[in-house]
Design a protein that fits this description.
The protein is of the alpha+beta class. It has one domain: 3-Layer(aba) Sandwich (Glutaredoxin). Helix content is about 45%, strand content about 15%. The chain contains six helices and four strands. It has a four-stranded mixed sheet with strand order 2-1-3-4, sandwiched between helices. Helix 1 links the parallel strand 1 and strand 2. The protein is globular.
Length: about 120
Amino acid sequence: MEVQVFGTRKSAATRKALRFFAERRVKTHFVDLQERPASAGELRRFVQRFGLEALIDRSSRRFADLGLGAARLSEERWLDKLVAEPLLLRTPLVRYGSNLTIGEATETWRDWSGR
């Protein structure tokens, strides 16, 4: 079993996800979004499953700094913005095969790992 975790090292939720999988000896591939942003195709998977709003962290400092509160952007423009500004994403984004989660999803992860 190998999971892919997208997030930032500063994110408490991302660190919690990495710790969760490490404690269960699940191999993880961590993608630090500040070093290498997620591709639009990767983000599109999450959008198809959960919708665009689930990906956007409207309470983040970066969202406020960019003044996006009144922004009315198309889905494609939002995807471009999320690729360029990974701090706008709700993290962690976790992928195990075709299974996806956004944010802390301990129960779902536990089902995946069987532990």
